[in-house]
Structure formats: structure tokens, C-alpha cells
Amino acid sequence: MSSQPAPISSAARQALEQELSRLRTERDTVASTLRDSDASVGDLADAADELQRANDLRRMDARITDLTTRLDTAGTAGPPRDDRVGVGSTVTVRFTDGSQETFHVGETSVGSDGSLVTVDSPLGRALLGHEPGDTVHYHTPGGSQSAVVVSLGQS
Q1: CATH number at residue 93
Q2: What Gene3D superfamilies does the entry give (predicted)?
């Protein structure tokens, strides 16, 4: 596996930039409540609330760092290849129970699109780089799974 960050599409870049902007605004709001709480110690509930806000701030800082690094280091992805599964591909797979589903392979999940499989999901990672006829294996919380790439297209 390459140590270079994977390129991202313009749409994914825009979604990450929007998330980053939202997180920075939320972080500023949470940080201001921490500064205001220095006036009095308060009761245990106040202390627990303060601790929760501090934890939220650390979580947001970590995500902001991750997003900033991703946006700063990733190039822009070109169109997906026609012969192998990549970001932007539409792929039909057949599962071991005989069911067949078509998915769009994307970088980020926006909303609750059931036809989207992200590249950081077990199935998404397994599909990348494969072509029709290939069997892919992946691990889920329910155990090991496999699927066959039936067909490939672009969205």
C-alpha cells in the first residue's frame, strides 16, 4: 500500500472543506464556553460538563488536524479508470448469498445514500483496483465476507 495520500475528487474536497469550516466554528463556540467557566468552580455537574466540553474540544482539534492534513497533501483525482474499480466507479457485485447490488464508490459519505460505498469501508477498500470477474474478500464485524465484481462503469 502506498504511503502517498490518495487523490480526492473536487466534490470530496468541497465536502471536506465544508466539514472543516463547520468544525472550526463549532470549536470556537465550545472553546469560548471553556474560557467563561473559569469564574467559579461550581458543583460536580458543572465539573462534569466542563470535562465533556474539554473532551469535545480535543476530538474536534484532532479531526481538524486530520482534515487539514488531508486537504493539504492530497492531489485532485482524475476520472476513474474504465477497467478497474476506483473512486467514482459504479460497480455491481454479487454476494455469496446470490444477491446482487450496484454501488457508487466514493470518498466521503454525504447523507444516507444506501448505494454509496466509501473507500474507507471494508467493502470499498476490498473493491479498489479490481476488475469484473475478480473475487474480493473483506472483514466486517460479522466476520469474513466475499463478493464477485460483476460489472464496472462510471457515474
Answers
A1: 3.10.50.30
A2: Transcription elongation factor, GreA/GreB, C-terminal domain, Transcription elongation factor, GreA/GreB, N-terminal domain
